[in-house]
């Protein structure tokens, strides 16, 4: 009898007009979404390659000590799942070479939108009248009168309803996968296809959850009209209200200083450090002037050869000081003495308490606590849990940004060591080499971003996926309890 109930529920759904509307709607939206996002992916990939090439060209022609570190950035390539899921833009992608304001006004559709909005609503439309509707038509009373257990009826409606509901989703997804596989600009490796399979399984878990929600509400409703209103209320609460309210609650409990306050304090700290450094340089200059007299005045007219100066010094002054030092040993000794004292002054300023660093670290700690609390609080909504699972699996969420920042930090430390060794060797080979001299840095370490391993991604999403499963269990148990006491009259 269970198979009969499943087949009956399945046929009733696929022969219903809402099934055809859902199928056509899913196919059109999914295909349009993937085609548009694939075009965006090609543009972002072109932007990424252009950034890398421009950086290489700049360093080939203008690699000075001062410019090297400022011009060597770790660029993050567009996520391989960009044709499916719109990722969170990082700092390096905050401005595109192809500026287009319309996506801000009219956000793109993506796979998350299709699952969380379209499929969740479709699931409710398939299940809201599964029990209440048949009670109104008298069909439920006839079925129960044939000595069929209520457990089999509920299981049959659940299995048959889910099977019919997933047809539009699976067909739309397969169409999108076909487009991805034949698109030459999208090259997915084996790990990406496994991630897509896991994403599909998580999506089915989420869709099933909302079908069970509608089934549960239907078992507690006498009329279909009451059931659909209650379902829509719960949908708005779980999809729109809770995920958007949680950050505001977290912001009230974990207050942090504004970015403007931090920037103003940073400016004050920078001005104070510059003032202290200049005062030290002035003291050194007065002391050396007493020792060298007119020779020092000549050196001062050359702007000290750029040594110890805050700001840019013309190259003619640097060259004049270097030539004078080569011609006069006493001038060179004075110049070296000033350079040594200036370096000591700079080290002193750099060793001063890092108020800004401490404040920034405190801000980051508080911001992390605020984000973590908001993220955990939002877990009472299945929408939030699915978004965490989908984004972390596809490398398009906060975890991916944190992973990139950690990888970037390691690369920057490697660059610091490279710069120190490279420019120390250049000074050793050429005494006239300074911070404005060009250097060949073609052998520098290159940044190659590799996404987090699938195992680590899966370990990260399992708790949130488990919560989705728990929602399914709770809704099914509630639907079962409600149906066992349901009055079919």
SSE order and pairing:
Elements lengths: L1 H13 L2 H46 L2 H7 L30 H4 L5 H17 L4 H6 L1 H7 L4 H33 L7 H30 L4 H30 L5 H34 L1 H8 L13 H13 L1 H22 L4 H23 L4 H13 L3 H32 L24 H31 L5
Brief account:
This protein is mostly helical and 489 residues long. It is built from 18 helices and no strands.
Characterise the protein shown here.
There is one protein chain. The protein is elongated. Helix 9 (190-219) crosses helix 10 and helix 16 packs antiparallel against helix 18. By secondary structure, it is mainly alpha-helical. The model has no long low-confidence stretch (mean pLDDT 83). The protein has helices spanning 2-14, 17-62, 65-71, 102-105, 111-127, 132-137, 139-145, 150-182, 190-219, 224-253, 259-292, 294-301, 315-327, 329-350, 355-377, 382-394, 398-429, 454-484. Helix content is 75%, strand content 0%. It is built from 18 helices and no strands. It has two domains: 2-60 and 69-255 and 379-420 and 449-484, no CATH class; 259-368, no CATH class.
Low-confidence stretches: none
Helix tally? 18
The ordered string of helix (H) and strand (E) elements is: HHHHHHHHHHHHHHHHHH
Structural class: mainly alpha
Topology, number of strands: 0
The rough form would be described as: elongated
Biggest sheet character: none
Note the beta-strand portion: under 5%
Task: Give the radius of gyration.
Answer: 33 Å
Number of self-contained structural domains: 2
Output mean pLDDT.
83
Q: What gap, in angstroms, lies between the N and C termini? A: 22 Å
- Helix % is over 70%
């Amino acid at each position: 009898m269970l198979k009969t109930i499943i087949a009956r529920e399945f046929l009733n759904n696929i022969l219903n007009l809402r099934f055809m509307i859902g199928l056509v709607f899913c196919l059109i939206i999914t295909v349009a979404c993937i085609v548009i996002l694939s075009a965006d992916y090609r543009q972002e990939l072109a932007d990424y390659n252009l950034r890398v090439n421009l950086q290489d060209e700049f360093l080939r022609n203008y690699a000075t000590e001062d410019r090297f570190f400022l011009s060597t950035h770790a660029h993050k390539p567009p996520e391989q799942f960009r044709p499916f899921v719109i990722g969170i833009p990082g700092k390096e992608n905050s401005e595109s070479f192809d500026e287009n304001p319309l996506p801000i006004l009219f956000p793109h559709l993506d796979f998350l939108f299709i699952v969380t909005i379209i499929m969740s609503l479709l699931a409710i439309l398939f299940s809201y009248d599964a029990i209440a509707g048949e009670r109104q038509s008298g069909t439920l009373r006839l079925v129960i009168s044939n000595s069929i257990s209520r457990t089999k009826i509920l299981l049959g409606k659940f299995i048959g309803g889910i099977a019919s509901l997933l047809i539009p989703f699976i067909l739309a997804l397969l169409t999108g996968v076909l487009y991805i596989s034949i698109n030459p600009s999208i090259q997915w490796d084996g790990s990406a296809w496994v991630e897509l399979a896991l994403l599909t399984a998580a999506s089915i878990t989420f869709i099933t959850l909302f079908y069970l929600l509608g089934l549960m509400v239907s078992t507690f409703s006498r009329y279909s009209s009451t059931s659909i209103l209650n379902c829509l209320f719960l949908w708005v609460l779980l999809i729109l209200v809770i995920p958007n309210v949680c950050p505001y609650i977290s912001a009230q409990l974990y207050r942090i200083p504004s970015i403007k306050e931090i920037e103003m304090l940073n400016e004050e700290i920078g001005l104070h450090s510059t003032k202290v450094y200049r005062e030290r340089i002035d003291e050194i200059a007065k002391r050396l002037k007493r020792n060298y007299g007119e020779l020092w005045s000549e050196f001062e007219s050359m702007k000290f050869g750029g040594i110890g100066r805050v700001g840019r010094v013309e190259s003619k002054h640097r060259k004049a000081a270097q030539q004078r030092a080569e011609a006069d040993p006493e001038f060179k000794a004075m110049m070296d003495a000033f350079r040594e004292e200036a370096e000591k002054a700079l080290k002193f300023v750099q060793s001063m308490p890092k108020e800004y660093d401490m404040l920034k670290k405190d801000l980051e700690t508080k911001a992390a606590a605020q984000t973590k609390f908001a993220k955990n609080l939002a877990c009472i909504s299945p929408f939030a849990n699915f978004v965490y699972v989908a984004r972390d699996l596809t490398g398009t969420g906060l975890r991916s940004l944190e992973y990139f920042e950690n990888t970037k930090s390691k690369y920057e430390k490697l660059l610091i060591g490279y710069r120190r060794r490279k420019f120390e060797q250049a000074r050793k080979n050429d005494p006239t080499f300074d911070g404005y001299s060009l250097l060949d840095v073609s052998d520098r370490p290159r940044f190659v971003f590799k996404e987090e391993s699938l195992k680590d991604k899966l370990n990260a999403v399992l708790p949130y996926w488990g919560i989705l499963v728990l929602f399914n269990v709770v809704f099914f148990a509630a639907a079962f309890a409600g149906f066992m006491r349901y009055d079919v009259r």
